[in-house]
Amino acid sequence: MYGSSAAAQKAKRRTHSRPEISDEQKQEIREAFELFDTDKDGCVDYHELKVAMRALGFDLKKAEVLKLLRDNDKTGHGFMEFEAFARTMSEKLLERDPLEDLQRAFRLFDDDHTGKISLRNLRRVAKEIGDRLEDDELQAMIDEFDLDQDGEISEQEFYAIMRDDV
Predict the structure, then answer these.
(1) Beta 43-44 vs 80-81: how paired, if at all?
(2) pLDDT digits (tens, 9 = 90+) for 57-71
(3) 51: burial class by Cβ within 10 Å (0-12, 13-18, 19+)?
(4) Model confidence over 88-121: pLDDT tens digits?
(5) Residue (of 130, 106, 129, 149) closest to 139 by Cα position
């Protein structure tokens, strides 16, 4: 009976679904690869890999990128094919800490390090991304999510917005 129990356990483990990235994330990976595979040969070299990873939000040190390339280089010529890139980026996306991503996003807005997103911060970001919103529109965005009514978005209020908790 022990053998069949072990086999049942093994089968059960196989049926557990591993976490997967979304279709949108898969598309982002494909687009990053295609965008930075500049010579369109289906492979990326060190420089193309580093830039493609940065576009996906991973800013690795040179040694880390070189190790990834070595570990996934089938030919030994310093290239990574799309399948290896997609697998590696999927693993990295699954390892990513969502709270860390939110903190990084908040810091992009809070460039003056006040711990709040002010009208000035929001105006700067809107200008940087080419959005031509008027101050009253930006203030309306702040007012909608400013739960403590202090005229600015705190880090906790920002997290609530990003997680759709408001």
Answers:
(1) antiparallel
(2) 888 899 999 999 999
(3) middle
(4) 999 999 988 888 888 888 998 999 999 999 999 9
(5) 149
What are the Cα distances from residue 61, in Å, to 10, 50, 65, 96, 105?
39, 9, 6, 17, 21
pLDDT value for 14: 47
Q: Using an 8 Å Cβ cutoff, are 85 and 49 in contact?
A: yes
Contacts (Cβ under 8 Å, ≥6 apart) of 20 = 90, 94
Q: Which residues of the chain have pLDDT under 70?
A: 1-18, 166
Cβ atoms of 145 and 138 closer than 8 Å = no
Looking at residue 18, the DSSP 8-state letter turns out to be P
| 130 CB-near residues (< 8 Å, 6+ apart) | none
- Nearest CA among 57, 36, 56, 32 for reference residue 46: 36
Nearest CA among 41, 67, 62 for reference residue 50: 62
What is the pLDDT at residue 2?
A: 46
